Amino acid sequence: MNFYEVLDWSVWKTLAKEMKVQIISQLLMYFVSPLKKVSNVRYIDCAQDGIKCQTFEFQIDGEWFVFVPGNTDTILGWDSGVNGLPTTAWHDKLENETEQVKKIIRNYQLKTKDDWTTFLNESTSPLRKKDILPMFVQKTPQPVGTKLIGHFHIVTGEFFGQQKIFQTIEQDFQAAFLAPVTFEESLSCEQPATLYKENQFFAKLNANQESYDVYVHQLSSYDELNDQLTNHVFDLLDEDQWEYAIGAGSRKLFRWGNMVSSDTPDQHAYIEQMIESKNMFGLSFQSLAQCFELTDSTCVKGEQWEQTGLTLLDLLPQASYYRSRHSFDRQAKLSPLEYNYRKAIIIRSE
């Protein structure tokens, strides 16, 4: 068995921790640019929908990545329609008939099981078998045209990170930030999800709502982004790699399984928790119904989707195999409010 064969998940999961530690050290040495700083290498246990993976997370120049083992002959795509999904998922009451929904209903009707099956199969990538190479994948996607410089604590008003860079945007950032006046206000003040000034900064509220991730921003097109990543020896995931990274090739529509019904508060809370949770590789895929995620082609994942009250329609952008009908111009400047991207390093034997 050669070195690359042990990076296949079927072999990787049988290895002792000590062996994995040796392997990850070699991978980081040979596949991360020597100009990059690797730090905080940690062994982690990840699980979702009964799929478990023991792997590593680490930082490259302060950004978190995980090692995703490869997988030979993994099955991707979806052709099963609504089979395995509860009827209530697509028989809910439509509460918000958006223009998108009107267009979908006009084209697909969405009244019967057959209507929903056709729509679902045409909204997902085709069934196929692929060999997925092992890879280092950024844990959380970042807005296009941005570079993370640190974190701003809402209660204390302190910034932690690259202070010199933050000072160049601090005045504009503070003007956009709604600072609580009293301690009580800091506990109840509802901050906006994002703060943004074009070509200055972009800030995103963390899930704990206690701090913002702060980025500097420069408008960028898809082609410019690709050039920047190539110069820094990073890749964008292709569609196969992206689908595998989110769902591990499981034959379920969603990474947490086929549970989509939210008839009770407990079920709704469970689904919300699964959406926010890291997956079986330790990766985050939050807010896929609010933002597109770029791949190595003009095929995008996720959606900008208003909630409609139809459970399956509302959750569909979260599906592992969802393929958006959205398209964009590769030379056009992309807004960080609409597009995310995720850095990767593909581990190739050649």
Offer a concise description of the structure.
It contains ten helices and 19 strands. The protein has 350 residues and is of the alpha+beta class.
By DSSP, the count of extended strands is 19
Q: What string, H for helix and E for strand, traces the elements in order? A: HHEEEEHHEEEEEHHEEEEHEHHEEHEEE
The gyration radius over C-alpha positions equals 21 Å
The largest β sheet comes out as: 6 strands, antiparallel
Percent of residues in helical segments? Answer: 25-40%
- Numbering strands along the chain, what is their spatial order in the largest sheet? 1-2-3-6-19-14
Tally of contiguous helical segments: 10
What does the overall shape look like? Answer: globular
Report the structural category. Answer: alpha+beta
The overall pLDDT, averaged over residues, is 91
What is the beta-strand fraction?
A: 25-35%
How far apart the termini lie comes to: 17 Å
Unreliable segments (pLDDT under 50, ≥5 consecutive)? none
Question: How would you explain this protein's 3D organization?
Answer:
The chain is α+β, with helices and mostly antiparallel strands. It contains 10 helices and 19 strands. The chain has helices at residues 9-12, 17-31, 99-108, 113-122, 163-176, 183-188, 222-231, 239-247, 265-276, 311-315, and strands at residues 38-48, 51-60, 63-68, 71-76, 128-132, 135-138, 142-143, 146-153, 159-161, 194-197, 201-205, 211-217, 220-221, 235-236, 292-294, 300-302, 333-334, 339-341, 343-346. The radius of gyration is 21 Å and the shape is globular.
